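>> received
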Amino acid sequence: KNGTIKPILRFYVRNEENKNVANAKIVVTYTPDVGNVVERGCTSNRSGVCKVVPPFFSAQASSVSVKLISVVSSFGDINLDENIELDGCPLFSDACTEVP
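>> returned
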């Protein structure tokens, strides 16, 4: 839109039984290669969906990296190694802390 980009993230929060987790709080940072780091968060709804909406970034940014800062849930610790994999690496796990 008018020379800007807006990379929206949608998280699906599930427990070990693959059931939706409501009220999980997620915080991420967006780091464009042009501009400032932006921190945003969301809370999952009863369907376990949490949508993080950042501000618009300049279209001059050729990339925007995203880093998971925290996940807080009443279900306790989150096992990030069970996340969906990208190029053989579980997203936001210790092995893949930042996603370009």
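>> The CA atoms of residues 8 and 53 lie 5 Å apart.
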